[in-house]
Amino acid sequence: MDMELLQQILVAAIKTGTPLLLVALGELICEKSGVLNLGQEGMMLMGAMAGFAGAYFTGNLALGLLLAVIAGMLMAGIFGLLSLNLNTNQVATGLALTIFGTGLSAFLGASLVGSTINGFKAISIPLLSDIPMLGALLFQHDILVYGSFALVAITWWVVNKTRAGLTLRAVGENPYSANALGIKVIKVRYIAVLFGGAMAGLAGAYMSLSYTPMWMENMTAGRGWIALSLVVFASWRVGYLMVGAYLFGAASILHLVMQGIGFTISPNLLAMMPYVATIVVMVMISANPIRQKLAAPMSLAKPFDARRH
Description:
Elements: H1 3-32, H2 40-58, H3 61-85, H4 90-108, E1 123-124, H5 134-138, E2 140-141, H6 143-161, H7 163-173, H8 175-180, H9 185-211, H10 223-233, H11 238-260, H12 267-271, H13 273-286, H14 289-295
Antiparallel strand pairs: 1-2
Helix pairs in contact: 1-6, 1-9, 1-10, 1-11, 2-3, 2-4, 2-9, 2-10, 3-4, 3-9, 6-7, 10-11, 10-13, 11-13
């Protein structure tokens, strides 16, 4: 394999892994607060549809991006109302949100199926983009990929180095102790859930405004589910999450690479690679339940009722 082909594969892995990274970042923060939201796929689709519709009808990509984030947050707000205020089962509520988002995005976007726009273009950073190998990998992307780099750094700093991050982790580990210390548990969890929705909407917008600037039903193709397993794969650590997203991104394009270099395996089998990789990773993680329990927030998916204390 020559260096030029390797470079193209790595660049494609970053682009393909970006929506996974964005939605997984949001889910990680959500789970750090003790809330498990399985509605990522539905929120991504609503973000993709809202973002595309906004850009298509106004010609303004920035407005489309804003609408995608708002759509994701509205969906997350529905989840928060049901699971945080009404204490519904988080798993069932998340699944219902995915079904709802999938159907609603298809209904609202029915007239736009197959439509295209001029999406976000790559921006080469002067001087840095000329660095051999590294320039193409890091400094020749569109604004959403650059934004994902910044969001990773900001999220890591907030979670690990700030009072807000300490509060978030305290709520996720033991909400009743946090409540006794005067922390508003429901408020913290709402903020985390809404942030998760915003990131899912942003990931959806990346799909419809940058990666493939068009609208089609179910265009996220299960990426929301992959992102959920990615959070577990990363052991709820931001740094590992970034590495994992690009590894899964590479798995997503592996079928194209193998076809390009002459492998005669069925393209349908090769296209299964990212989903097979997801299953393999989950099986490997499940083989060590003690390690998983130590890494996971202790109150994950457990409802909080302030009236108990």
